[in-house]
Amino acid sequence: RTFHNRNSVDDKGMTLYSIIHVTRNGQPMENAFWSGKVMCYGDGGVYFKPLAGGLDVAAHEMTHGVTQYTANLEYRDQSGALNESISDVFGAMVDSANWTMGEQIIKDRSSFPTGALRDFVDPHNGGTPGSQSWQPAKMSEFVNTTQDNGGVHINSGIPNHAFYLVARDLGRPKAARIWYGALSNYLTRSSQFIDARIATVKAATDLYGATAPEVQSVKNAWDAVEVYDGSGTPPPPTTKPQGTEWILVTNTDPNDPNSLYMAKTTIQSTSDYFPLSRTIVFNRPAVSDNGQIVVFVDGDYNLRALYTNPQNPQETLLDTSGVWWSVALGPGLSSLALTSKFVDTTIYYFDLLHKQAKIFKIVTQSFDAPDARTALYADALSFDPSGQFLLFDAFNEIRGSIGDTIRFWNINLLNIATGQMGSVFPPLGGDLSIGNPAFSKTSPTRFTFDYWSRSLNVDYVLAADFNTGNVGTVAGPLMVLGYPTYSADDRTIAYHTLINYQSANHDAIQKMPLQADMITGTGSAETHSIDAAFPVWFVIGTRVGVDEPAPNVPQRVMLYQNYPNPFNPTTTIRYSIPSFGLVTLKVYNVLGQEVRTLVNEQLPPGNYQVQFDALDLVSGVYFYRLQVGKYSEVMRMLVVK
Ligand SMILES: [Zn+2]
Questions:
Q1: Is the pLDDT of residue 129 over 60?
Q2: Where along the chain do the CATH 2.120.10.30 domains lie?
C-alpha cells in the first residue's frame, strides 16, 4: 500500500478473506489458490507442508487478485504464464530475502532438489526439462504443452528471469516499480511475452525517461531471455453488420395479445411495430446475425423459432422437451447454445453445420487450482461475431465452514474450440453481481451487461472491453435488470427499465447514446417503447468482415509478431499494406536460406493474415521478411518441437 500506492487487491480497500485447511474431495490439498474472491490454502501432503506457511505463497495468491483487477491476463498460454510470473514477482518482492519461491513449504526434496518451488536466478532449479521443479530460462527452452493451461506454471520462468536480471541491475525497488507500472497501465488480457517487453519498456520510460539506463536495462533483460523487440500482438479483427436495423421487443401489456414485436429503432407511430407472435416469451430471445430468425424459450420451457417477416412469421416448435431456460444463436445459424431449467452446470452446444452436439461444464476460474468449482448454473448467453466465443453469466456459491455462504453472479467467456473458460471480470464484494452479458456488434472484446445489488435493489447498465479492462457506466440507477443490447454501430445501447407513465410504473425500453469510447452513456436517454422488455437490437442484412474491402486503409506497412510464438507446428502472421503493390513474405532459417514463400503477389491495400506450417522444419529460430515495393521488415519467430 505504501510502496505502490494501491489499496488492497482491487485498489478500493476490498476486504481479504483467507481460508486455511482447504481440502479437495475430503483429502488434504497440495495447493493454494485464489478463487477470484477468497484465498484458499491446503495443508499439503506428499510434496508440500501447509501452504499458508509460505509468505511468498500468500503474496503470490494475493497478486493474482491484483492482476485480475488490472491487466486481467487470460489464464492460458503466454498471457497465463505472464499472470503466473507477475504473482511470482510480487511474491518475491514481499518475501524479499531471497530469489526463490515456496522455500518454506517444500517437504519432498526428491522432486524439488533445491528445496524451492521455483528459482528466479536459475529457473532450471536443480531439475531437468520436464521434471517438476524445472522451468525454462529463455525462449529457446519454451515448452509447448496443453497441460497446466498451456504451461502457465512452466513458462513463467522466462519472464521471471527477465525480472530478476532487471532487479540485479537496478535493485529490487526500481524493478518492482517498472513491473507494477506495466501491469497497471499497459498489459491487457491478451498480452504475450513480446507485449510484456513493450509494456515494461514503456513503464520504465514513464518513470525514468526514454534515454535512461533503466530503460536499456529492461531491454537487455528481455534480450537475454530471447524475447526480442517487435511490434506487439495486434488486437483481434473486427466486423460489422450492414442492413436495416430493428429492435425486437417483448410485450408486457396484459391487454395486448401479442407477445413479440419487431420495431423500428425510432418510433413515430404504432405502425412502426410489427407483431410476430402471441406465444409467451420466457426470457430474452436470440436473433440470428442475418436478422431473419428469432429463437426463444416459451412459457412451457420449449424452444421455438420464427421468421422476422411480419406477413408470414411461420412460428414453429424446435424442441418440445420442456427443459430449456435460455438460448443464443451463432453466426450464420451455424450453432446454438442452450441452458436447462435445472440447477445444472451444463451449457449445451449444437454445431448445426456438422450436426454435432457438445456439452461444456461451467467452472468459475480459480488461479492455481483448475478444478475448484463454485458455479451452479449459467443463464444469459451471447455469441461473439465469429461464433468461436460465448459470453455467459453464472450463479456461484461459496460455502464457508461455519455456515456463511457467499452468492454472486459473474460473467465468463467460453472458447468453443478448446472448452477453456474464464471470468472476464473479477467477482465483486458484498452482494454485488454482474450478468446478462451481450456482445457488441463490431468488436469481439466489447460487451454490455447488468451490475446490481440485490440488497439495495438497484441496477446499473455497464459496458466494458474485456481486453483492455476499461469499464463505462451506460445508465442507472435502475429498479429492474436492464438486459442491455448494442445497436448495429455500437453507438447506442437499448435496455429495459421502469418509467412512470400515466401515474403508474411501466416496463419500458430506453435508448442511451454512447460517448466516443462506446462504453459510457451520454446521460440523455430516450424512451423507445412502453410496456416492453428484453430488447434485442438486430440487423436484417449481412456482416462485413475486415477481409473484405478494408473500411480503414492502413497508414503504413506493418508486420506483426506471429501468434502464437513460439509455435508447433502452425502460427499466424499478420501484416498491413497501405497501397497496391507487389508483396512478398518469405521465411528464412538462421543461415539466411529461404525455406518458404508464403506470399508473392500483387495485393490491394488492407489487413492480411497468413498461416505458416513448420511441420517439416526443425526446432529453432526463423526469420520472416515482408517486402512491399522498396520497403521491407523482418521479424523473428521460434519453432519449438
Ligand atoms: Zn499462481
A1: yes
A2: 239-545
Q: Is the separation of the CB atoms in 92 and 121 below 8 Å? A: no
CA of 352 to the centre of ligand 1 (A): 38
User: Residues 61, 74, 84, 103: which is the catalytic one?
Assistant: 61
Please list the residue range(s) of the chain that carry CATH number 2.60.40.1930.
558-639
Provide the grid cell at 154.
512452466
Q: Which residues contact 370 (CB under 8 A, 6 or more apart)?
A: 149, 363
Cell of 363: 467452472
Assigned C-alpha cell, 324: 430449456
Q: What is the pLDDT of residues 530-555, one digit of tens each?
A: 999 999 999 998 766 533 333 455 67
Q: Which CATH superfamily is domain 18-224 in?
A: Neutral Protease Domain 2 (1.10.390.10)
The yes/no answer on whether domain 239-545 falls in CATH 2.120.10.30 is yes
According to CATH, the superfamily of the domain at 558-639 is Macroglobulin (MG2) domain (2.60.40.1930)
pLDDT of residue 93: 83
Specify the higher pLDDT residue, 581 or 226. 226
Contact 441, 391 (CB under 8 A): no
Q: How far is the CA of 87 from the centre of ligand 1 (A)?
A: 6
HEC-encoded secondary structure of 349-411? EEECCCCEEEEEECCCCCECCCCCCCEEEEEEEEECCCCCEEEEEEEEEEECCCCCEEEEEEE
Cβ(65)–Cβ(179) below 8 Å: no
Q: Which of these is catalytic: 60, 124, 153, 528? A: 153
Of 606 and 394, which is predicted with more confidence?
394
